[in-house]
Design brief:
The protein is mainly alpha-helical and 324 residues long. It has one domain. The chain has 14 helices and no strands. Helix 1 runs antiparallel to helix 9, helix 4 packs parallel to helix 7 and helix 4 runs antiparallel to helix 10. The longest helix is centred in the middle third of the chain and has 31 residues. It is globular, with a radius of gyration of 19 Å. About 6% of the residues have low confidence.
């Protein structure tokens, strides 16, 4: 059952990028779509946790929930949804996989934390993968400036995500007694609300757009399957295994996203895109190799390590809370 649920998580998180692309391609306002998705999913999950007496309404009054929502959900997905108007879902997925690299960079540059030479090499490899993915298309006349702006927007969102992930480490320590699902639901509510406010000032929302099967299907899939089912299965895997194993979806889902975009949506992926994507994933794996070694060494050792860290873990674990 663990393997089956893990594969479902990888498939769900890998297909959400295409679902976003389908929605925005059919004129769905990006900020409203993202806001509705996260606000609805967060509200339903939070109500469910309150009903099960595993969360209190007072959690929504905490400033930390607003800050994490602003960084993890609003900051990341406002840029991602906007960018997918101009870049393919496969490119969006691969660039989103740079999140763990950004976290390690932030730890080195801002927090002045020491890291291994292997992690630095992994960062350099991952960033070279970004160059392989982006530069050939930037030079191409067909790509255009909006394609480059879309790529830059996704990377900017990942920088904001890395800041939010580092902040969230302290939040999870402060709220160690709260359910992770409740914390994630609360930040999704705030992030979704901020996205809806942004939409109110920048977009015209038409009910007719969301009556189209493609647009409505995209929104429902992202809300129910992407945000609710995907996250519930993820936290089930964390409870049944360890914090690191479920997070390895990061190394699988971008390849799934690129493949299904080519096979089912007519997207193109040249050799530079494939090579760049593979290089980014290789750099991410190398950067987080210590966590992966802990995973292979057995659940007991990993769980003990996670407890010693206060549940914060490594860069790869920090990406878990707002998977696309």
């Amino acid at each position: 059952m663990i393997v089956v649920n893990y594969l479902i998580v990888c498939l769900v998180f890998g297909t959400t990028f295409l679902a976003i692309k389908i929605g925005v391609d059919h004129a769905a306002p990006p900020f409203f779509s993202a806001g509705f998705r996260f606000f609805a999913a967060g509200a339903i999950l939070f109500l469910w946790m309150v009903w099960r007496k595993k969360a209190a309404w007072s959690l929504l009054l905490r400033r930390e929930m607003l800050v994490t929502g602003a960084l993890l959900t609003f900051g990341t997905f406002s840029f991602l949804y906007w960018a997918e108007q101009y870049v393919t879902s496969g490119v969006a997925a691969v660039l989103s996989a740079t999140g763990p690299l950004m976290i390690v960079l932030m730890q080195m540059i801002v927090l002045r934390q020491k890291t291994t030479r292997r992690a630095v090499l992994g960062i350099l490899i991952g960033l070279s993968g970004v160059m392989l993915l982006v530069l050939p298309n930037m030079i191409s006349v067909q790509a255009g400036p909006r394609w480059a702006m879309g790529c830059a927007a996704i990377l900017t969102g990942e920088v904001l995500y890395s800041i939010g992930a580092l902040y969230t480490k302290r939040v999870t320590q402060s709220y160690a007694g709260e359910s992770p699902i409740a914390l994630n639901a609360a930040q999704m509510i705030y992030g979704g609300l901020l996205l809806l406010i942004l939409s109110a000032f920048t977009e015209r929302v038409s009910a007719e757009v969301f009556l189209q099967p493609s647009t409505l299907g995209s929104l429902l899939y992202l809300t129910v399957v992407g945000s609710m089912v995907g996250h519930s299965l993820f936290y089930w895997l964390v409870a049944k295994t360890n914090p690191v194993f479920p997070s390895t979806w990061l190394y699988v889902s971008p390849l799934i996203a690129m493949t299904i975009g080519v096979l089912f949506y007519g997207e193109t992926a040249g050799w530079f895109a494939v090579l760049g994507g593979g290089t980014i994933i290789a750099g991410t794996v190398l950067t987080n190799l210590d966590s992966l070694r802990q995973l292979l060494s057995g659940p007991a050792r990993l769980t003990a390590g996670a407890a010693a860290e206060g549940g914060t873990g490594s860069a790869v674990k920090a990406k878990k809370s707002t998977a696309s």
